[in-house]
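Aim 2 progress. For LysR family transcriptional regulator, the working sequence is reproduced below.
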Amino acid sequence: MDFTSLEIFLAVAEHASVTRAATAAGRAPSNVTNRVRALEEELGVELFSRQGKKMTLTRDGRTFRSYASRLLALGKEARDALKPSAMPNMLRVGSMESTAATRLPLVLQAFNLAHPDIAVRLTMGSSEELTRAVLAEEIDCALIARMPADIVDARSEMLDDLDAEPIYEEEVLIVLPASHPPITTVADVRVTSLAALEPGCTYRRVAETWTRPAGSIRTTEVSSYHAILASVAAGDAIGVMPRSVFDLMDWPGAVRIHPLRAVQTLLVCRKGSRSPAVEILHQAMLANPGPSAR
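Predicted structure tokens for this construct:
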């Protein structure tokens, strides 16, 4: 097993095709096929289910993909450790959609102007997805929302294996239909649906903890903050989002907002693995903080 075989395996897994993987890797299809078969023989399992030209990961293949990504990342880390003064040619950054939209444009612009030789690959996801990706060494660092200490959550334990530094503070809002009377507590809410993003979203968990005492408010999962506002505008739901996103969207309709609480945004990376490139990004964030929580 070597790094080249792992890279070819991951390329086939990504493209679900030997031909497309070969094109992406700049190799002959026969070479890719032989490498995959040799890897399967070495491991003693089938990594792909072959249906014509389509290559689909088997259960063993899905398990091995995580290890392959980690092995490649570990190899890169070892090479970088032997050349501490060398900058990587790529920085893999994870971010929540809200942070990418409101905080990162100026940060990434400043980073690119100062270091045009370092490409930034941005991965979007929920706080939970991004935390797992950092731990699996699939990305170098990530911006995640910290779960408040008074909310019990198993994800908080994952931070024990990460270096985490507070970067931003977001004010989380409950957004209500314009026709809804002002509220003080969840008992004042007159609708029975909370529009929120995926379960791994910290803001969703904060809102669900707030609505739980009401007992009658169910969560409706939507795919974007625009969809949250559309659900609220329809009059039968409340929504949750950070104020920075709400201010950025410039929603044409009328809605009410109710401040819920402040939530920290953390910059996380694996313990002891903050590279010079991550530190440069960190300094760019401090220099370009973006909107302030109110």
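The mean pLDDT is 90. This observation will guide construct design in the next reporting period.
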